[in-house]
Amino acid sequence: MATDFYERLISKYEPLTEAEFLTLVSVQEPILGAALPAKIAALTRGQLQLGMGTLFTNLHAMTQDYLIKESVDAHDQHSYVITGSGQAVLAAEANRLRLLSQICAEARV
User: Fold this and answer.
1) pLDDT digits 0-9 by tens, 81-93
2) Which of 23, 47, 86, 92 has the fewest CB atoms within 10 Å, i.e. the most exposed one?
């Protein structure tokens, strides 16, 4: 039953946008929402900076689809962490990207 759920989510999200992919990568450990833009900028060596609107739209949608869990502390700070469903979607996307990378290597692109 869980496998069907994961497969539906993978079908819905695959392929992930760069913003969705980087959001999932960034929340593999719990992180405050305010720290996410800097983490994504660091991951991409400053080549991609997500605006707060894009980032929080992704966080909201992924929270609704159970890819990410949101927690709010006593100071109203929101933190996010990936769920098992999110890990399944991220793993499927990583496999897809590995295939694309292999194709590029073989084609000498």
Assistant:
1) 999 999 999 999 9
2) 47
Q: What is the dihedral of CA 63, 65, 67, 47, to 10 degrees?
A: -70
* Confidence tier at 2 by pLDDT (50, 70, 90): low
Token pair 């996307």 is found at 93
Residue pair 64/72 in contact (Cβ under 8 Å)? The answer is: no
- Give the torsion sign (CA, 49, 77, 57, 84): positive
Among 52, 61, 81, CA closest to 20? 61
CA distance linking residue 92 with residue 76, whole number of Å = 33
Cα(10)–Cα(81) distance, integer angstroms: 18
Measuring CA to CA, which residue among 17, 25, 58, 59 is closest to residue 41?
Answer: 25
pTM: 0.87
pLDDT over 60 (residue 1): no
